[in-house]
Amino acid sequence: MFLRLLFVLLIALNIAVGAWLVLGQDDAHVRSVTDPGVPVLHLLTERPDLVAAASVAAPAAVEPVAAASTDPAPLSAAPSTTAKSAAASYRCMALGPFASLQALRSARSKLESQTARSRSRQEQSQQSRGWWVYLPAQASRTQALAQAQRLSDAHIEDYFVVSSGGQPNTISLGLFKDPANARKRRDEVVAAGFPAQMTERVETVPEYWLDVVVADDDPAAWSQRIRSLGVGSHSTGCF
């Protein structure tokens, strides 16, 4: 009986030792689930180096968004700049006439830094050369000389007979700047019995003008500049 019990105890002890050897050892003795030479696959979440890199990159990815939220600040100044330029007003003036092309160029150079735009132009104008008192042309040179003799007999001096040009055989009685003096001379000759007439002599001359576009912020200063040039001014169409 004792031997039988001892035999059962030895069998139970062997079973316990065997179970401990099989179940209680480290995984290093467990057979690999992969073939020899093939690396073991791991999930990305199981790699500590990638997890650490992801945790560092996450705040960096947020930074551009935060920075972008502050970028529109300079754009807020753009409407004020545009409004300021739109509020500025300009006027267009014609300066002149200048006595010569050289005088115009000199004025344009002086005003260049104070004008938004400028342009020069030349026009033709009729300029008075005085008032002419005369006797109408006679049919021939002989008749003109005879009329001149009658003027001399009437004690009317300062005349000459026109022999060439556009009005031959006309007797000129004088050219006057002042129309009042011209009328006085005509009336004297008419009173002596001669059909004297008067007319204004004009000629076509060039005029030089400078058109400018200027800021309308200081009209008084511009009036002073124009006076210093010795010319007049008036409003003109913008260009």
Automatic annotation (TrEMBL):
Name-wise, this protein is SPOR domain-containing protein
Query: Which Pfam family name is an example for this entry?
Result: SPOR
Q: What is the native source organism of this protein?
A: Dyella ginsengisoli
Where would I find the SPOR domain in this sequence? Answer: 125-202
Q: Which PROSITE patterns match?
A: SPOR
Q: What is this organism's lineage? A: Bacteria, Pseudomonadati, Pseudomonadota, Gammaproteobacteria, Lysobacterales
* Gene3D superfamilies xrefs: Sporulation related repeat
Q: Which domain of life is it from?
A: Bacteria
